[in-house]
Amino acid sequence: MAINNQDVYRIARERMVESQIKARGIKDERVIQAMLKVPRHLFVEEALRDQSYGDFPLPIGEKQTISQPYIVALMTEALELKGTERVLEIGTGSGYQTAILAETALWVYTIEKYPSLQEKAKKTLFDLGYKNISFKIGDGTLGWQEASPFDAIIVTAASPQIPPPLIEQLNESGRIVIPVGDEFSQMLVKGIKKGGVLHTKNLEPVRFVKLVGTYGFKE
């Protein structure tokens, strides 16, 4: 019996979750189920689809990337989502991380700097049936004041600091996950807001593209 493409991708997804996600200590069952469900291959260029479940980032245009699957899982798990949260995502990119958030949170607000990337991501997400996402084009370091406060914020590009507007727009007990550092090496940082103050801890070294904006890197 011939195996169709969907089966090939499903098997690749299952292998990805076993060898890259669970094997590295990701335990949040809701994150694992989302990673098993979301068709990652639809968020990459057709020419790269055979690599879409590999253990590495891939280019998506505008000098941006779709993050390595493990990093997507790690960042999502660190947000401690239960399904009732309003989440702000800085950097829509391919829309893959957005889909994982849409599976694990109540509502996702996502900001992208490049209209071409967000248009493509929006079409993929709508085609997959997601209805709990709001989109915006703009400077992600300024957050989304009108929609705040948020229960969780995820930043999918590296910043020299945690942008102050993002801390302000975080709910009490809210979580933020962001790569912080210079252009070449960063630390993935998790912050929890308590008593109006952000308490941070380091998760692990990472390498992301630059977050450009008022409180990020200059062009």
Please characterize this protein's 3D structure.
The protein is of the alpha/beta class. The chain has a domain at 57-206: Rossmann fold (3-Layer(aba) Sandwich), CATH 3.40.50. The protein has 6 helices and 9 strands; from the N terminus they run ααββαβαβαββαβββ. It has helices at 5-21, 29-37, 69-78, 96-104, 115-127, 164-168, and strands at 58-61, 64-66, 86-90, 107-112, 133-137, 150-155, 170-181, 186-194, 197-206. The strands form 2 sheets. It has a 7-stranded mixed β-sheet with strand order 5-4-3-6-7-8-9. Strands 1-2 form a two-stranded antiparallel sheet. A hairpin with a 2-residue loop joins β1 and β2. α2 crosses α4 (96-104).
- Mean pLDDT, as a whole number? 96
Judged by helices, strands and strand pairing, the structural class is alpha/beta
- The gyration radius over C-alpha positions equals 16 Å
Count of distinct strands: 9
Which CATH first-tier class of the domain at 57-206 would you pick?
Alpha Beta
What would you give as the CATH superfamily of the domain at 57-206?
Vaccinia Virus protein VP39
- Helix amount: 25-40%
Q: What is the makeup of the main sheet?
A: 7 strands, mixed
Task: Point out poorly predicted stretches.
Answer: none
Q: Give, in spatial order, the strands making up the sheet with the most strands.
A: 5-4-3-6-7-8-9
Shape: globular
- Between the first and last Cα atoms, what is the distance in angstroms? 53 Å
